[in-house]
Every structure is written in C-alpha cells, then in structure tokens.
Amino acid sequence: MPTSVKQMLEAANAAVPKITSDEAAEMIRSGNTLVVDVRDAPEVAASGKIAGAVNVSRGMLEFRADPELPSHDKAFDKGKTVILYCASGGRSALAGKLLKDLGYDKVYNLGGFKDWTGAVEK
User: Fold this and answer.
1) Can you give the residue ranges of the Rhodanese domain (predicted)?
2) Residue 71 is assigned to a structural domain of this protein
C-alpha cells in the first residue's frame, strides 16, 4: 500500500495510461467519450477548459462518479471512455486511479491543460 504521495503517483501512473493531445482528440472525435477537468473552479475560470469537458474538482470526483450516490452526475457512465486532465497531470493521474477503483475501465490521463492548449496552438 502506498505510503507517500510519490508512491501514490507511481501507482496511479502505472494504472492509468498517459495519452497525447492527438490521441485525446481522436478519442473525442470517435464519440462516447467523457472529458473531465479535475482542476478547482477558480483555475478553470482563469484559463478555460476543453470544449465539452465537465469540470469536477478532484475532491468531488467520487461523489459525482458513483452511480449509487444521489450526487451522481449522469455524464459519468462506466461504458464511456474517460479522459482526465488537470494543471500538470498529477491530480488527473490520481483521479484516473480513483475511477479505475470505482470500476471504470477505459480511463486515460491527458496530463495538464497546457498539454492540450499547446497542441491546439501548433
């Protein structure tokens, strides 16, 4: 069992594949994909988010993703591909591991929002 944040990140990165912005764009084009921004609301307000992404801060993710809870967000469907991102990739890796633990199979870490915006600006 992990005993430090470093170990938690190592476990998360081992469980959740990291994808490129090109791979994410292809998954989004294919459909049946949920893009989740796990940054806090002030971060999203300051920089925007990927078009169509839902913003659920990492601290609320399990409450929105678990279909057995009254706070479940219907956008979360275990049959969908889920792409997560944050500011630099750490929170999205941990969030991806959490979703895997909740039974989501197709979960990917895009990394940081800057990885997406940098690719879009090219």
Assistant:
1) 29-121
2) yes
Q: Is residue 120 part of a domain?
A: no
- Confirm whether 122 is domain-assigned: no
Which of 15, 10, 29, 23 is closest to 99 using CA atoms? 15
Domain total in the chain: 1
Q: Give how far the C-alpha of residue 73 lies from the chain's centroid of Cα atoms, to the nearest Å.
A: 14
The CATH number linked to 106 is: 3.40.250.10
* pLDDT class of 24 with cuts at 50, 70, 90: very high
Separation CA 88–CA 101 (nearest Å): 22
Q: Is 73 helix (H, G, I), strand (E, B) or coil?
A: coil
- pLDDT, one tens digit per residue, over 54-112 is 999 999 999 999 999 999 999 999 999 999 999 999 999 999 999 999 999 999 999 99
Number of residues that make up the chain: 122
Q: Does any domain span residue 102?
A: yes
Which domain, by its residues, includes 64?
5-114
Residue 1 has pLDDT above 90, yes or no: no
